[in-house]
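<goal> How does this chain fold?
<body> The protein record starts here
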Amino acid sequence: MELLKNKKALVTGSSRGIGRKIAEVFLANGAEVWGLCTKPSAAKAELESFAAENGTKFHEICADASNHAQLAEVVKAALAEAGGFDVLVNNAGITKDGLSFRMKMEDWQKVIDINLTGVFVASQIVSSDMIRKKSGSIINMSSISGVHGEGGQVNYSASKAGLIGYTKALCKEVGSRGVRVNAVAPGFIDTEMTQAVKQEIRDGWVQQIPLRRAGQVEDVANTVLFLASDMSTYITGQVIGVDGGLGA
């Protein structure tokens, strides 16, 4: 069953990790996908081929999410090309970890600019069109760090906590127009970023997880698919943890 057949989606941070898997799952379920990344990616050709195999299309668009004027211009152009989006997934994000008393102001600001303000810029443009059409689903990628905080990640935790507040506030603004806004909060997910951490540290993380395993990108992508689809039409303003019980 193609849960997103004939729907059009914008997925930010689509070139790797969770974002790429979301793009693949959306394409496999019939959506036409616009994937936004910072610069032309090696994933483009593979995603275009995967889309063709599934009878749909993938379009890669590029913008620096910390350059908000550029981001707005690119999102507006994609919106016009698509004729409107049914789904927006705000997945793009970065980390610049460090203890708060040593953190450089530019490392604080860059994370906030991309992880939080970039979401506002893209959502403002896309949600305005969704309101006009009285239909749409926006999914914001938060984190367990935004729910509980994480030492050494005050900038990242603040940005992801901000996304939760933004999600809950925006859902109250647009809900009466048929637009849903939810957040997903992944825990320890097996990605390129976490694979760079020493194995003994990774093993320690797993021991804290009730399900005793790291999450896979598919676990997050499938949750996003549910929130994007018509299977979740009465769900809005929620933060869904995909963490194996780590945040319980």
Q: What stands out?
A: The mean pLDDT is 96. Residues 105-133 form the longest helix (29 residues).
